[in-house]
Amino acid sequence: SHQRVDGYEAMTRELCASLIDGFIAAGRADAAADYAQQIPVRVIAHILGVSDTHADTFTLWVRDVLEFADDPERRVRGVEGLINYFLAEIANRRDQPGDDLLSMLLHSEVDGSPVEESVVLGTAALVLIAGVDTTWSAIGSSLWHLATHSDDRKRLLEDPEVMPFAIEELLRAYSPVTMARLVTKDVEYGHCPMMAGDKILMNFPAANRDPEAFDDADKVVLDRAVNRHVAFGSGIHRCAGSNLARMELRVALEEWLRRVPEFPLDESQDVTWAGGQVRGPRILPVLFS
Q1: DSSP 8-state assignment for residue 53
Q2: Which region holds residue 184: left if phi is over 0, alpha if psi is between -120 and 50, else beta?
Q3: Which residues of the chain carry a pLDDT beneath 50?
Q4: How many of the other CB atoms lie within 10 Å of CB of 246?
């Protein structure tokens, strides 16, 4: 809910500032690994009630799961670490609830009976998987855009009023998520036959650059006024965390621009992108001039 998100904003701002403190003196950073990727994991950890002392380990486990799909050992280490951690935390919160999502779920009832442990665990996993690499990809892509488009970067510095429009436009232009669906009955759309049981990818990034829906669809127009993008999907399965994601993206950009107003790409290194269902920069080396 909005109210909850407002409560997390101060913590997010503090987190962004402390991350920047860690690298600003070096005059360079990997804006993906050192910044964008750190923010959502730690915000979600906070929401789930992970203590500050565990946040680093927790972040490593999440990265093991999300980052190293080609390294099965790391993936297993991450999955086991997270599951064992959550099981232990669930046991603790039964007797000593806190002001966090796990405690809230454990002490809720559905149709008169308590929520089962497996559901609490599943919800924690869903919040993590849905809320982390999606948001870090949006933050990373936006920083990449600003590193490579100095007019837009200057516009945001000089005209902070444009920020709410810019957030929506960056989400539209660099939609990080593509979802999948199962076809329920035979149908033909745009001369493409699809059969019941087929699996299809719903390409949100392509929809968001549809020239029939947007003027200058391939151009980033920071103050685009009419912007009915589908970066968060639409309909019944629309993203439940969109308010949280927007807040994190806005605060991450505000804090970064406040401290690092100029940050061209470090041309001596490559920017690498992750593809697949979630797209965003994995390595984003920038220099602070």
Answers
A1: G
A2: alpha
A3: none
A4: 19
Q: What is the pTM of this model?
A: 0.92
DSSP assignment letter at 232: T
Contact 280, 273 (CB under 8 A): yes
Tokens 């950890």 -> residue: 45
Residue 97 burial by Cβ neighbours in a 10 Å radius (0-12, 13-18, 19+):
middle
Chain-centre distance of CA 186, in angstroms?
A: 34
Count helices and strands in the chain by DSSP H and E runs? 11, 10
Are 90 and 52 in contact, with CB atoms under 8 Å apart? no
Cα torsion at 41, 42, 43, 48 (round to 10°)?
90
SS percent in the chain: helix, strand, coil, step 5: 60, 10, 30
Whether the CB-CB separation of 95 and 125 falls below 8 Å is answered with no
CB 197 within 8 A of CB 181: no
CA dihedral 181, 272, 140, 46 (to 10 degrees): 80
Query: Is there a contact between 248 and 42 (Cβ–Cβ < 8 Å)?
Result: no
CB 16 within 8 A of CB 257: no
Dig out the tokens for 280 from the structure. 């965003």
Calpha distance 210→155 (Å, rounded): 25
For tokens 């006024």, the residue is 225
CA 103/CA 100 separation, integer angstroms: 6
Running DSSP on this structure, what letter comes out for residue 278? Answer: B
Q: pLDDT per residue over 37-80, tens digit each?
A: 999 999 999 999 998 888 888 888 888 887 766 788 888 999 89
